[in-house]
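Friendly challenge for the regulars: who can give me the structure tokens for this chain first? No prize, just bragging rights.
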Amino acid sequence: MATICPTGRHDEHNVYAEACPCRALLDLLANKWSALTIGLLEQGPARFTELHAALPGVGPKMLTQTLRRLEAASLLQRTVYAEVPPRVEYALTELGRDVAEPLGRLRTWAEDNIDRIAALNANWTS
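First reply, four minutes later:
Bragging rights claimed.
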């Protein structure tokens, strides 16, 4: 549902409108590493090494970029503990917890339907 845009860049928020800033947010959330990171953080705060170990296939650079983008969007918070060596934890914010539910449904849908999609199209690859 479109809402009036308080930025004045266009009349209303609409992901189909080229100038709408919600397109950047949709891009962030539609990214597989973002969706998977948010899913992991639903279980509670985690350190970088824990997230990296739980996400086979993601490189440290990509995970760092993903965490920074999620933090910049206020979907997670990064907490640095004054210890030697410093300990850093990532946790979902209220906004992050809000988006975790629909992303969880999307992850579940993908798991539940991958075999159907593969059976319907032998040429489909992941």
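The chain has five helices and four strands. The longest strand covers residues 76-81. Your move, everyone else.
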